[in-house]
Amino acid sequence: MRILVIEDDRTTGDYILKGLQEEGHVADLCRSGREGLIAAQTNDFDVLIIDRMLPGLDGLSLVRTLRAAKNRTPAIFLTSLDGVDDRIEGLNAGGDDYLVKPFAFGELSARINALARRPQMRAVETVLSASDLRMDLIRRRVTRGETDIELLPREFALLECLLRCKGRVQTRTMLLEEVWGLSFDPQTNVVESHISKLRGKVDKPFDTELIKTVRGAGYRIDA
What we know:
By secondary structure, the chain is an alpha/beta fold. The protein has 2 domains: 2-122, Rossmann fold, CATH 3.40.50.2300; 127-221, Arc Repressor Mutant, subunit A (Orthogonal Bundle). The protein is built from 9 helices and 12 strands. Strands 2-1-3-4-5 form a 5-stranded parallel β-sheet, with helices on both faces. The chain starts with a strand and ends with a strand.
């Protein structure tokens, strides 16, 4: 699954991110409410994990804004506010679950899996494809024809980004924000380097090239 974590406490955020990635999820981390809102509005996530007390925009307001915009991505509130009224307020704001800090990661994982079994989650796209290239997001498996392709986590995230926007150009800035979480240009060739490595695994061993360079614009995967 692809999961967005919105948590301003660095230790907690990094702990959740590491745990989710170890379980095979694709996880992004935002450290403010406004940054998290933009990410949730502009990308497709399977689950949102949201702290209530966030700088810039609190978690309740964030979820209310998403629900008003018809965004139904399941949301788990993760907070130290443990009163009954706090829980009721969180659920009434549009949250799907409520977990109080301190928490066990195993319980958070179980709650994520419980949300994944709900009917609205089954409709989420879990397999992406273009031509004979197939990416299974649940099994974390990439194949081209009958050939398995082993990708590093960042390569996997880069390919997923291109496949989700199949047929549309993704600029260098878009990829930096989406795959590396950078809202600034680090003035390196990190995108170009990873695209080259990805092509070496996805395109070069095969007859047809799928990853295209659009000069002066960015990159695109054709169907």
